Structures are given as C-alpha cells and as structure tokens.
# Entry
Amino acid sequence: MTAPPLTKVAFTDDQGDVETLWAFDLGDGRYKLDSTPWYQYGVSYQDIVLAVDRDGQLHFDRVIIKSGYRTLRVRSNNAVPQSLLDSVVALGCKYEGANPAFVGIDVPANVELSTAADLLIASGLEWEYADPTYEQIYGPEA
# Structure
C-alpha cells in the first residue's frame, strides 16, 4: 500500500511567524502531521488537522483528532547532549531537531509525560511543555 502524499501545512502564531510542518494528505482538507512542531503550541506529531488552501499554501485551521502524542521542547546553549536524547529514545519517545541546540520531543500515549519531563528537569537544560502547555497541565494560576 502506498502512503498518502506528503505536503506542507503552514501554522501561523500570534506574532505572525509561520512554521510549516510536513503532513500526509488524507483528503477532504484533512492532514496527518508527520513532523515535530518546533514553535507551535497545541499540536503534536501525528495529529490530524484541518487545513485550508489560501493562495496555493495550506494553512492550519484546527486539530480534528489528537494522536495521543504530546510535545516537549529542550534548548541548550550548545548541542543537546546525545546522552539525553538516548535516554528519551529509551523511554519510547522520538525526537527531531530544528538544530543541534533545539529539539522537539514526541512523547507517545504509552509513556508518562511526567517521566519524560523528569529527564529534562534532571538535565538542567531549558525546556518547555508545548502540547499540552504548562498552563493546560497545571492551570493558569500555577
């Protein structure tokens, strides 16, 4: 069986910055993300999203189905240590780097988000929750 064709879907943040993510075209305006979001919040690897064509470019409209993946991001002044990335993979997660110092981590549904977060806390590196966000997990007052 042949995989659906890959295309780029543009995501625009509140400041107008655009990130494009690879996605499989499922038809009827639906796309399954095949990239790790490095800058967008509220979307994760393999989420199914609705996108609309504007002037020949697909633009994100909304998430239709959550994949079960969650997204964490880690930053370093230098390259993120390979030992940390190896530990992330050993948990059952995958990662994709925007560059060696900025990495998105895809946490599947069968891995406790807190376990992956504990690895990042122990690393001492700067990191964040991207999907769900910190506020979605702990509330806006946290």
About this structure: The two ends are 47 Å apart (CA to CA). The chain has three helices and nine strands. The first helix runs from residue 82 to 91. The longest strand covers residues 18-27.
